[in-house]
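[step 3/7] inverse_fold.run input=structure_tokens len=473
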């Protein structure tokens, strides 16, 4: 059963329910009272990045304080393209076909997404930023009235962008540019038609240079924020614990993504400095909505595609693996019609839940298939019977990071356990008791020792792979 706790401190999440009597559909008129949606998707932002004691993002905090937060929100695929497809289509990677960061142009054109269904039911829709499902194809995907995109990862300064089919080089910092485009769309939106703004920031993904050097450049003026601040380190940062046989292969601390002391403080601080521009942008979006008298009639969502390792388990500047620093992400939601201010929701929620939630809020047709569940009842404070007790995490190997080559896996996370079943390696599976070992340090399957819950977890994992079912029977 999901659990809901009300509190008054700022936290994270976003969604909403509609007043009755609305008119919707392609021919919707001035009587259309469905909510607008502003969906802000960040890149590689961990669930705890906003919680550092020395940072104060006032606008992000406002969204949290005036809305709700899911404290147990996760991605089912900790890699850019698969996670983004899950957010949009509400399906696991093995279902929708976006299994990695490769060229998935044709597949991404065929995705049936929540913003596409909302567009077809009368919403005016716009996309700004990083698509990342087909790096060499910046052509419009179905269901957008407005599109501002960049190829691949784009550039932080003076980026080249595809603006409604015209290739332009915009001067400035990419976070500010995307925010400005989104604000202009809100300012010009007709009162008679609800809208969707999908704002997919590049922040805080690293800037990858031709020589593979990765940097995290803050906006001009933010370079010295938090000078002298130190980063608290998790107990899992340090020497790799015994029992992680798959991860221990080929350990090379000369690799910048496996530094012996974890990600340097200055790198983490630069990532947090980059969030300052995001926060200012959130403030500009909220102000534009207020100026139009639309703020309280708009669902405002802030989340991220996946997390990031800061040295946990010997991993740095990386995601991909099934440990919580990579899969646990923020979800902030402001919509006073439904979500009471200061609400904290502990239901086990995943990125696949976003699509059915948005479609319910917009009274649009449901997806033919989704492994997600609408979060509307949890936001309304309802008791939801047979809520999800476990979910699947998927990763298909690629060759980007030599240390985790051939480490494809299917994993299961429950409230109590994390079970990782590797698909290409034998005898190296992992099991963690999260109640006793929340840092996932001690593999209970080390040295081939049997452990009682494994057969049950195996069966749960196989059932999800076969049916997509993630709730109690």
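[step 3/7] decode complete -> sequence:
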């Amino acid at each position: 059963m999901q659990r809901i706790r009300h509190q008054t401190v700022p936290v994270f999440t976003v969604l909403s329910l509609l007043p009755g009597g609305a008119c919707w559909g392609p021919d919707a008129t001035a009587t259309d009272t469905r909510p607008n949606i502003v969906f802000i998707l960040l890149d590689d932002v961990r669930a705890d990045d906003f919680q550092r004691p020395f940072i104060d993002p006032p606008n992000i905090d406002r969204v949290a304080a005036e809305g709700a937060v899911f404290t147990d929100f996760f991605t089912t695929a900790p890699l850019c393209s698969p996670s983004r497809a899950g957010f949009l289509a509400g399906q696991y990677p093995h279902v929708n076909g976006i299994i990695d960061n490769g060229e998935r142009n044709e597949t991404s054109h065929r995705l049936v997404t929540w913003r596409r269904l909302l567009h077809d039911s009368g919403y005016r829709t716009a996309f700004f930023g990083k698509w990342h499902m087909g790096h060499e194809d910046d052509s419009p995907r179905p269901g957008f009235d407005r599109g501002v995109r960049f190829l691949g990862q784009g550039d932080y300064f003076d980026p080249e962008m595809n603006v409604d089919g015209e290739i332009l080089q915009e001067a400035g910092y990419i976070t500010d540019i995307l925010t400005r485009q989104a604000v202009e769309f809100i300012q010009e939106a007709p009162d008679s038609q609800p809208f969707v703004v999908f704002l997919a920031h590049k922040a805080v993904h690293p800037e990858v240079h031709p020589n593979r050097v990765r940097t995290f450049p803050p906006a001009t003026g933010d370079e010295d924020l938090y000078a002298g601040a130190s980063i608290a380190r998790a107990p899992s940062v340090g020497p790799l614990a015994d029992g992680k046989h798959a991860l221990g292969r080929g350990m090379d601390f000369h690799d910048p993504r496996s530094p012996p002391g974890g990600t340097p403080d200055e790198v983490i601080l630069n990532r947090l400095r980059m969030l300052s521009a995001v926060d200012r942008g959130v403030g500009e979006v909220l102000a534009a909505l207020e100026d139009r008298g639309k703020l309280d009639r708009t669902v405002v969502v802030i989340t991220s595609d996946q997390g990031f390792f800061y040295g946990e388990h010997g991993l740095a500047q990386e995601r991909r693996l099934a440990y919580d620093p990579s899969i646990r992400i923020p979800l902030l939601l402001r919509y006073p019609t439904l979500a009471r201010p200061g609400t904290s929701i502990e239901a086990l929620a995943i990125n696949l839940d976003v699509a059915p939630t948005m479609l319910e809020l917009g009274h649009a047709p449901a997806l033919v298939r989704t492994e997600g569940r609408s979060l509307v009842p949890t936001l309304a404070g309802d008791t939801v019977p047979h809520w999800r007790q476990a979910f699947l995490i998927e990763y298909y190997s690629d060759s980007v990071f030599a240390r985790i080559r051939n480490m494809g896996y299917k994993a299961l996370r429950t409230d109590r356990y994390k079970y990782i079943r590797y698909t290409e390696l034998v005898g190296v599976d992992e099991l963690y008791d999260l109640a006793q070992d929340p840092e996932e340090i001690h593999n209970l399957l080390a040295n081939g020792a049997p452990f009682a819950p494994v057969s049950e977890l195996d069966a749960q994992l196989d059932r999800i792979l076969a049916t997509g079912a993630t709730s109690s029977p």
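[step 4/7] annotate
DSSP finds eleven helices and 19 strands in the chain.
The mean pLDDT is 86.
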